[in-house]
Amino acid sequence: MGVRKHGWLFSVQQFDSLVFTPSHIFFTIVIKLLTFNVGLYASKALDMAYDIEIILNRQLADCLSIPVFITDTNGNLIFYNEPAEDILGKRYKDTGEMPVEVWGTVFNYKDDDGNALATEELPLVKTLKNRLPYHKTFWIQNLKGIAERISVTSYPIIGRAGKFVGAVAIFWRPSEE
């Protein structure tokens, strides 16, 4: 049996010898808040054992006002942020993760002339294949059935050790030229 103090479990002998100073309590609270905050952004990613670069990109995407779409190395959608929800037509909470076979076809991609784009022509798919950045402007039919013209720039996520861990696509509605 133990004693719980500030969220930590101590044996009775340990508890009797502990001295809780204000600085100890402050740092305990800060550490717990930081752990909780990272957990909010990356709880799903941590459950799936994603690399730290994926977790940090997801946290960054969640803070940006530009739409962001993140995939793993196999092209499976890991996350898209709230600004992306407006263009894609559904909340991430409602779609969840998607394999490339789904997101690569569900949006009905077309060029400016109305010709269907093959999945292999999409910037994000090219980035996943070649591990290089790409850009393209094209049309999608979002999940509400609305046609949206978007510009997409994709880039690989490569960790410090040179390990390829996924890819990111940022996209927006281009201004009329």
Outline the fold blueprint:
Blueprint: E1 2-5, E2 8-11, H1 12-17, H2 22-47, H3 52-63, E3 68-71, E4 77-80, H4 82-88, H5 92-95, H6 100-106, H7 123-130, E5 134-141, E6 147-158, E7 164-172
Antiparallel strand pairs: 1-2, 3-4, 3-7, 5-6, 6-7
Helix pairs in contact: 2-3
Name the descriptors:
Beta-Lactamase, alpha+beta, about 40% helix, two-stranded antiparallel ribbon, single chain, five-stranded antiparallel sheet, about 180 residues
Strand content: 25-35%
What is the element string, with H for helices and E for strands? EEHHHEEHHHHEEE
Total number of helices: 7
Strand count, sense and barrel status of the largest sheet are: 5 strands, antiparallel
Keywords: Membrane, Transmembrane, Transmembrane helix
Organism: Paraflavisolibacter caeni
Transmembrane segments: 20-42
Protein name: PAS domain-containing protein
Briefly characterize the structure.
With 177 residues, this protein is α+β, with helices and mostly antiparallel strands.
Description of the molecule:
It contains seven helices and seven strands. With 177 residues, the chain is an alpha+beta fold. It folds into two domains: 2-45; 50-172, PAS domain (Beta-Lactamase), CATH 3.30.450.20. Strands 4-3-7-6-5 form a five-stranded antiparallel sheet, sandwiched between helices. Strand 6 (147-158) and strand 7 form a beta hairpin. The longest helix has 26 residues, at 22-47. The N and C termini lie far apart (71 Å). The relative contact order is 0.13.
